[in-house]
């Protein structure tokens, strides 16, 4: 999960962003062997596996029919199906000010 550190005068945050998968990219570019290989790493929303490459491709077509452009990889509670994960700010402890110790 990519992270970025955000520092403000009041607080320091780490912003984590979940990855997402394009829907149209695979539909345009994947060959049958790519769909078959994807069965190893793409799961249904409930965590179960797709039974076949055709079932997986059908799921991508169903997402496209809903107007979705991307789908989340993993759980994300701040997800936009057009843009992907919108980020998760996690407050972190700022580094100690060295001048305050003297």
Supply the key terms:
102 residues, alpha+beta, three-stranded antiparallel sheet, two-stranded antiparallel sheet, 3 helices, elongated
Short description:
The protein is of the alpha+beta class. It contains 3 helices and 7 strands.
Write structural notes for this entry.
By secondary structure, the protein is α+β, with helices and mostly antiparallel strands. Helix content is about 25%, strand content about 25%. It contains three helices and seven strands. Strands 1-2-7 form a three-stranded antiparallel sheet, with no helix packed on it. Strands 3-4 form a two-stranded antiparallel ribbon. Strands 5-6 form a two-stranded antiparallel ribbon. A hairpin with a 4-residue loop joins strand 1 and strand 2. Helix 2 crosses helix 3 (about 55-65). The longest helix has 13 residues, at about 55-65. About 10% of the residues are buried. The model has no long low-confidence stretch (mean pLDDT about 85).
């Amino acid at each position: 999960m990519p992270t970025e550190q955000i520092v403000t005068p009041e607080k320091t945050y780490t912003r984590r962003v979940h990855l997402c998968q394009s829907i149209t990219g695979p539909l345009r570019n994947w060959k049958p062997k790519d769909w078959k290989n994807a069965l190893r790493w793409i799961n249904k929303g409930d965590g179960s596996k797709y039974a076949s490459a055709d079932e997986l491709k059908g799921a991508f077509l169903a997402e496209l029919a809903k107007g979705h452009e991307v789908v989340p990889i993993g759980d994300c509670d701040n997800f936009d199906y057009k843009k992907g994960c919108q980020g998760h700010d996690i407050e972190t402890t700022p580094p100690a000010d060295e001048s305050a110790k003297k």
